[in-house]
UniProtKB/TrEMBL annotation:
Keywords: ATP-binding, Nucleotide-binding. It comes from the Bacteria. InterPro entries: P-loop_NTPase, PhoH, PhoH2-like, PIN-like_dom_sf, PIN_dom. GO terms for cellular component: cytosol. Residues 9-150 form the PIN domain. In the N-terminal section; belongs to the PINc/VapC protein family. Gene3D superfamilies: 5'-nuclease (3.40.50.1010), P-loop containing nucleotide triphosphate hydrolases (3.40.50.300). This is PIN domain-containing protein. It comes from Candidatus Wolfebacteria bacterium RIFOXYD1_FULL_48_65. One of its GO terms (molecular function) is ATP binding. CDD domains: PIN_VapC_PhoHL-ATPase.
Length: 492
């Protein structure tokens, strides 16, 4: 007796999904994938671009050509996951759409899906199927364009965002990287034990009766509180111990220091030689880029040969259009945030931390300036450029990393929330022996229309790598830039 045929879902893929994830065609399983022919027309416009969009467009075309070897795209070519892929052009009768909708490719996608929906409705009413097409139980448009999804829904077609690379349902579920544990008073002796303090390690077994150790991720940032005692530590799961936060000694290159608990944890992760990738999420002014640059600069030459900073070229506000000059000259405006932060580090005369001894000088709590004779306004920028000239620092657009193999370098990818998961994967795969990768960004500030707070490369990496011995993450909550910046980040 033959098994009953499992109903398939017919998914209609928008161009932006193809450009967002070149592996999307393999993520629909046993179901039917329909690409409207106009989506291929739009894809063709990107194939010569020398960026991630161009690479994705070319790869999708190659995949379709390979599928065509196994069957007609018009009649349905079998996929490796057991599904079928169609390229359809049944989207010319705009009379089936509400009056006033433009005759554009977005609305043609709705028309193609509507034609399949009408056939499905007729079959449900008992009509005979004239064409030898596989059975399907539902029609769904998949698009990253919110307005297209809204229009499709208004036209009676189910529409959804692309879910193939989303690891969480809501952004509130994103792993924070930090845990606070209030311990019973009887555990105070464990935290204050002389051997523990001397070695800087708390054996996990000493806290096993109080904590669910299996639920704590590797490299989790843990704050333990007992009465008035507070201890900050990183959980080293492989060795079953909590490594207590190390004090910052006097032998440092600059006086800029972490100013709050999250920044201190970030610095710990960034300085940890056992961690190869660190992700820092935080609102504007929280110090994520500054902490990354601080740790990279502190370890420059001793641990790493180069400090490499890459940024995407997404603009805020209306785009400025064509810019004359070389690639470096066009990218100059995007380097200013890095220059500003490096300026602060190289001035190296501002402490943002609690009382301590730095280079033999007492540093008071808060902002204590210990400036040398004033330089000219651009003097500290000259110091940054000097590092670049010496080959110790490089700041460039993100597409410059493609094809490279980078060893013994501290790589910072700033504004990584504007990258796709595949772009981040490409970047991380460039890391050679002795290289650390740091992703910084604010998942609530998205400038790239192809990603959102959940599907961006930073959120994706945080969720996929949490628990790995090679990865660490912390969310920075407090704005340290200024009271005005804090007000804007919180209320505007």
């Amino acid at each position: 007796m033959s098994k009953p045929e499992i109903p398939r879902v017919a998914f209609f893929i928008d161009t932006n999904v193809l450009l967002h994830d070149r592996e999307c065609l393999s993520k629909f399983g046993y179901n039917i994938v329909v690409i409207p022919i106009w989506a291929l027309e739009e894809l063709d416009k990107f194939k010569k671009h020398q960026d991630e969009l161009g690479a994705n467009a070319r790869e999708i075309s190659r995949q379709l050509e390979k599928l065509r070897e196994h069957g007609s795209l018009a009649k349905g070519a079998p996929t490796e996951t057991g599904g079928l892929l169609f390229v359809d052009y049944n989207g010319t009768d705009f009379n089936k759409l509400p009056v006033g909708l433009l005759r554009n490719n977005d609305n043609r996608i709705i028309l193609v899906a509507k034609a399949w929906q009408e056939k499905l409705d007729k079959l449900k009413k008992g009509a005979k199927q004239k064409e030898p097409r596989p059975k399907y139980s539902e029609v769904i448009i998949v698009s990253k364009d919110i307005n297209l999804r809204l229009k499709a829904d208004a036209c009676g077609i189910t529409a959804q965002d692309y879910l193939g690379d989303k690891t969480i349902e809501r952004i509130e579920m994103l792993y924070s990287g930090m845990e606070t544990h209030v311990l019973p008073n009887r555990m105070k002796f464990v935290l204050n034990d002389h051997t523990v303090r001397q070695q800087g390690l708390i054996p996990a077994k000493a806290l096993a009766d109080t904590l669910r150790l299996d639920d704590i991720h590797a490299n989790a940032c843990c704050q333990f509180r007992v009465d008035k005692t507070t201890v900050n530590a990183i959980y080293k799961k492989a060795t079953r111990c909590f490594r207590i936060e190390r004090k910052m000694g006097p032998a440092r290159k600059c006086l800029v220091m972490p100013s709050n608990i999250e920044q201190r944890f970030a610095y710990e992760l960034l300085m940890d030689p056992e961690i190869s990738i660190v992700t820092l999420n935080g609102k504007a002014g929280s110090g994520k880029t500054l902490m990354a640059l601080l740790a990279g600069y502190e370890q420059l030459e001793d641990v790493y040969d180069q400090l490499l900073v890459y940024r995407p070229c997404h603009e805020i506000g209306a785009p400025l259009g064509f810019r004359p000059g070389s690639t470096e000259e066009k990218f100059d405006p995007f380097t200013l945030p890095i220059f500003d932060n490096m300026k602060l580090l190289l001035d190296a005369r501002v402490s943002l931390c609690a009382t301590g001894q730095q280079g033999g000088k007492h540093v008071a709590k808060g902002f204590k300036e210990l400036r040398e004779p004033k330089e000219s306004k651009n003097g500290s920028y000259a110091k940054v450029k000097d590092l670049i000239t010496k080959g110790l620092l490089d700041i460039g657009p993100i597409n410059h990393i493609r094809g490279r193999s980078i060893a013994r370098s501290f790589i910072i990818v700033d504004e990584s929330q504007n990258l796709t998961p595949l772009e981040v994967k490409t970047i991380i795969s460039r890391a050679g022996e002795g290289t650390k990768v740091v992703l910084t960004g604010d998942v609530y500030q998205i400038d790239n229309p192809l990603v959102d707070s959940i599907s961006n490369g930073l959120s994706h990496t945080v969720e996929r790598l949490k628990g790995s011995e090679l990865a660490g993450h912390i969310t920075l909550l407090k704005c340290e830039r200024s009271n005005l910046a804090e007000l804007a980040a919180t209320l505007l």
